[in-house]
Design goal:
21% strand; globular; 2 domains; alpha+beta; 170 residues; 5 helices; four-stranded antiparallel β-sheet
């Protein structure tokens, strides 16, 4: 929002609890913006939990946000961007067609249950993924969070709640 209208963002800051523009600039310059899970952010959260500045009890939130479909050439990386992208480290098999334009950004965020903190832990550029792929991404996010000491429940117990379409009760 700040990118499109700094004045509108400042107005929204009076209504909602949003970070200062300086914090946004610092975060975007320090984190690698490639699609995938942000291991650096998870390590930072792990350090804050170990230091006692935040509580490890958190919830995993995810949301798909519509974005404009277009292809752009990234001169610094010498590649075209705008297609479906799950990052270099994630192999989801043949279920995903990576040659179509992305229409949405699927964002994963950890939100503190007792504290006032929230951190994006990853995003993916998608074009209508099915429930099986989304379920695998949720399981990976839960496992990564647990590996970095952020969830109190075990991932196997939590991921039992993630149902695939074949398991839906109706």
């Amino acid at each position: 929002m700040h990118f499109y209208s700094p004045a509108a963002y400042e107005y929204l800051r009076t209504i909602f609890h949003l970070p200062h523009a300086r914090s946004l600039r610092q975060w975007t310059s320090s984190v690698q913006p490639e699609p995938g899970f942000f291991i650096d952010v998870l390590k930072e959260l792990q350090a804050r939990v170990a230091g006692g500045s935040i509580n490890k009890n958190c919830a995993l939130m995810l949301d798909a946000m519509h974005m404009r479909s277009r292809v752009m050439y990234n001169t610094s990386q010498d590649k075209y961007e705008g297609f479906v992208d799950f990052g270099p480290d994630l192999d989801l098999g043949e279920d995903v067609n990576r040659e179509v334009l992305a229409t949405e950004a699927l964002v994963f965020m950890l939100v503190g249950l007792t504290g006032r903190w929230k951190f994006p832990i990853g995003y993916f550029l998608i074009n209508k993924i099915d429930a099986d792929v989304q379920s695998r991404l949720v399981q990976i996010a839960l496992n990564l969070s647990h590996e970095h000491g952020l969830l109190t429940d075990t991932p196997s117990r939590v991921t039992a709640l993630v149902l695939t379409p074949r398991q839906w009760p109706y």
